[in-house]
Amino acid sequence: MQREETSLILAIISDQRVVRNLKDMLQGTGFGLDVAPNSETGLQMAEELIPDAILLDFDLDGDSMDACRRLRGNKVLKGMPIVMICDHDDGDSRALGLSAGVDDFVSKPLDGIELIARLRTITRLNAKRLLVTDLTRFKWMVSHAADGYLLLDMSGIIHFANENACALLNLSSDYFGLPFVATVEYRFNAEPEDAWANWSNDPVPLFLVQPESPTARAAWVMVDALDTMLGAEHHRVVHLKDVTERMAIYQDMRHFHTVVAHKLRTPMSVMFSNLSIIKNKMEMLSPDEIKDFVASSIDNAYRLVDEIRQILSFIDAPLALNAGEPATVKLLPEIVKSMCQELKLEKIGLSVPEELHESKIALTREALEMILYELLDNARKFHPAHDPRIEISLLQTKMGYITMYVTDDGLTLSPEQLSWAWLPYVQGEKDFTGELSGMGLGFPMVATLIWKAGGDIWLRNRHDGSGVIVELKIPLESTTRAFERPAAPYSG
User: Fold this and answer.
1) Residue 223 backbone dihedrals phi, psi, to 5 degrees
2) 469 CB contacts (<8 Å, ≥6 apart)?
3) Is 84 found in the same domain as 150?
4) Domain that residue 97 falls in
5) Number of domains within the chain
6) Does 237 or 125 have the greater pLDDT score?
7) Mean pLDDT of 2-27
8) Number of C-alpha atoms within 13 angstroms, CB side, residue 160?
9) Is residue 468 part of a domain?
10) How many CA atoms within 13 Å lie on the side-chain side of 264?
11) 384 CB contacts (<8 Å, ≥6 apart)?
12) Which of 28, 89, 118, 163 is deepest in the core (most CB within 10 A)?
């Protein structure tokens, strides 16, 4: 049950005059008040409400000392602060109260200033006790967990990080007091960028990506968070999971799927068709026709072997950047023309400024082909008539980067589809394909290729009609080669 008061007090008092005085004194002080007229009701209400402190009248109808001992003996309530109301000069009552487990006393008749001061002191101490207890329990649970865990205050400052969180974020032993967001941004790119921009207010799951460099593959950390109460204070528990290996598997699977669909199918189909004709119509074919069919089959066999060799090279390469030469922008018309012929797309426009033709981008030709194939294939599959009008344009909008826009006139996407389109690990846990109902399987693959190269990607609906715009910020090859991530954590 939520309440606006800063602290809830449960008063176990039989005398209604005392109750009325108590309500008047606590009015507008920030303390909420619930009243139980006897010990049985008081014990039940205490278990239900879990108040911040209990006021117990020594002159309670029944045995107030027994009520105190029962409160202390309850597993849920044994640490609850108990303040007893008794006569100022009644030393015997106070001695009995201390032996029964009373924490503090206020005198009759009640003095409002004294009462509020005692309640504020004891509830503050109780809040700190609860916080220490909860933090101790939390730290013990996550100290040797396989994943990383951090505890942030609500301003985003790191208060605790377990061993694996320190390793994943490269934190030193004096991490206490570092701002989490700045620490992350010092070493990682947080993706999707739009989700990260609002993460402090809305901590949705996302990726922390270290782009590839000439000496290291891309590193992937999935981050999620939960806002919760520890003790009497709000905290944010951050969960970090190293998914680098899983993302590598995912990308290899998507790469193989794309190559099979895009590159291996044609030579295999031609070979099978040629050999079937030779087998079934051998007696009807002339020697020259047989020779032509065999020659075509051999050519496609060589092509098939070459494509399989490229797949194996990609999978075996320790660094994806070294799996091929950086692509040059001037290759784009040739690649787009080939894609359009294969996908039977006719309404496509391409705009490439001449000054960009010789620019080398931080993607191999193979990676660029995969990206364009997935985007064009999705535009075709999710167009109502499977005949989209597509516009591809390139601009150099930022030093060291090229921006590519791919616009179609197909479906308008829902907010949910736009939000989750690029998160294969989150959406594709079942079979790790990145499938999201109504979306193309290759969208997440495109995003991960761009992210690990140090670029970025956005997906949005067109404002001038149906369809979507995919915006890709692609680093130049020289920009990627210059990527250097600091080894030390952010220090302010």
Assistant:
1) -120, 135
2) 405, 406, 407, 459, 460, 461, 462
3) no
4) 7-139
5) 2
6) 237
7) 79
8) 20
9) no
10) 13
11) 410, 411
12) 118
